[in-house]
Amino acid sequence: MKRVIATILTLVMLLSCCILTGCSTIEPVDVNSENVWTVLDEYAAKIGYKNKDLVKGTVPERGDNAGESTGPDIMYELPDITNYPVTVKGTGEINVEIFVPTENNGSSIVKFIEHAAKEFNAANIKVDGKTASVSIRTLEATLAEDYILSGAYTPEGYIAANELYGILMNENGIPVSQVADRMVGNTMGIAIQQKKYDELKSAYSEVSIKTIVDATKDGKLGVGYTNPTNNPTGLNFVISMLSYFDANNPMSFEATTDFSAFQSAVPLVSYSMEQMKQAVNNGTINAFVVERQAFSADSDLSKNFVFMPFGVRHDNPLYAVGDVSAEEKNALAQFAEFAAGTEIQKYGNELGFNKDMTYTSTVAKYEGSLIKEVLDVWKQAKTSTGGMSVIFVADVSGSMDGDKIKSLQQSLLNGMQYIGEETRVGLISFESSVYLDLPLGEFTTEQQEYFAGAVGKLKANGGTSTNDAIVIASKLLHDEPAENKKLIIVLSDGQTGSGYSLRTVKDLLDETQIPIYTIGYGSNADENELKEIAGINNGTYVKATTDNIGYLMKTIFEAEA
């Protein structure tokens, strides 16, 4: 009798759970590339959504470069510089602040420079009879550049991943002068899975850059690289490829045509190295562009991949920025000389730097505005296959109430300026139910007004059916033009409590192949869930702070547009 009662209670609990949470406990349906859209339609029909009335709102002022990924004319989206505190504070009579941008090597370059700075400051080195010191501030590479380009904040020194960034700043009207061509040795290159490397060697006799190009065009190799507009390694790779196609004139018709043909066969241009690694793990790519130090420091990569140096060296040159005084420039030079010493470089060796030291750049020196032209060519090559359709999925559940919903609204409004008018944009919100706040449409002036109006009406209340909303977004994007690139951007604290579980719909979302970016709000954001959602189709997760969200939106559109 007890067993019968227990069985009945179990069934009642399962039924209650199904009613309350949208049947989140049901087993996932088998799904594949042939039935994915049929299954998606079935799930979407079960979930359903409610249409909201359209109301026009006030569109934030768009700068001259609205809809483009470059241009420092809009500054309000930059986070406050205090979000990136000084990690080594110099107290000398002559103190110079140095930006240390992070990139593929994560914290390794930061560790090296901070170590060198602490030792330098402790040495009490004199410059013109005064004690010299350095202060170190760490932030992302593109963010560091944007602070300088916009004039929002200018340090005395800047350590770029490679010399191309120094050239790029000069092209943008920021006077920089190279103090040292190397703080610690590094290179860029292409990592190829060992098995694939062996296959290529057998099929093409050797593995060279020509092999990589030919194999990519032939569909025998899947190469990924990071976006050149916000990543030094990606910029290096694109410039180096153009130089490979025509060493004398990387902007020639032959070079740009050959690059476009190569780019059309590339399966992934990623937002971040984390996104790249996800693509390797799920089999989207089997070769990718990476820094040598990051490759050497990762035992799995070193064991399972072959590294081929390529392009401009990544020796982390030091630049003086703007109108620095003679003694400040001397202090920077003294720091560079100190860091070049045996003991400091020994620490760099321990971190995995100073490999391939005999490798020389395959790219000629650049002059004029060539890097800007290169980025224009890249954008044209990347977007030549079609337009873009984007749905923002906004969490308006009760847990988002207060500062989080306000930050979400501000991020959506700030992000508007980075969306081109030809992009098709829609907005979904969700709590226990899913709402279509704005149907997809070209981001014309009228669509922008409706978008701003919909954002202004968002209010936090109710449960959190995150995965239901993503399913609806995927369904709506499937109905978009087939040639368009599709993208979902989820803004949430990740605390799903109703609707379908991620386990139930994960395979379905995977088969849609629509990238999902997730932006997490608040100190209590469920990062694990948001990261898992982003990892399904080579999206990525970024954590939002109160005032950096608009900038995060900018970098996402730079990576995907």
Task: Describe it.
With 561 residues, this protein is an alpha/beta fold. It has three domains: 30-60 and 386-560, Rossmann fold, CATH 3.40.50; 81-186 and 314-354, 3-Layer(aba) Sandwich (D-Maltodextrin-Binding Protein, domain 2); 188-312, D-Maltodextrin-Binding Protein, domain 2, CATH 3.40.190. Helices cover 43% and strands 18% of the residues. It contains 21 helices and 19 strands. The chain has helices at residues 2-21, 36-47, 108-123, 141-150, 163-171, 194-204, 209-217, 232-245, 253-263, 273-281, 292-297, 299-304, 326-339, 342-351, 370-383, 403-415, 445-456, 466-478, 502-512, 527-534, 549-560, and strands spanning 50-51, 86-88, 94-102, 126-127, 130-140, 157-159, 176-180, 188-193, 223-226, 268-270, 287-291, 305-309, 318-321, 388-395, 424-430, 434-442, 485-492, 516-520, 541-543. A seven-stranded mixed beta sheet has the order 1-16-15-14-17-18-19, sandwiched between helices. Strands 2, 3, 4, 5, 6, 7 and 13 form a seven-stranded mixed beta sheet that branches. It is globular. The termini are far apart.
In summary, what is this structure?
With 561 residues, the protein is of the alpha/beta class.
Spatial extent as radius of gyration: 25 Å
Specify the CATH class of the largest domain: Alpha Beta
CATH architecture of the largest domain: 3-Layer(aba) Sandwich
| Average pLDDT taken over every residue | 86
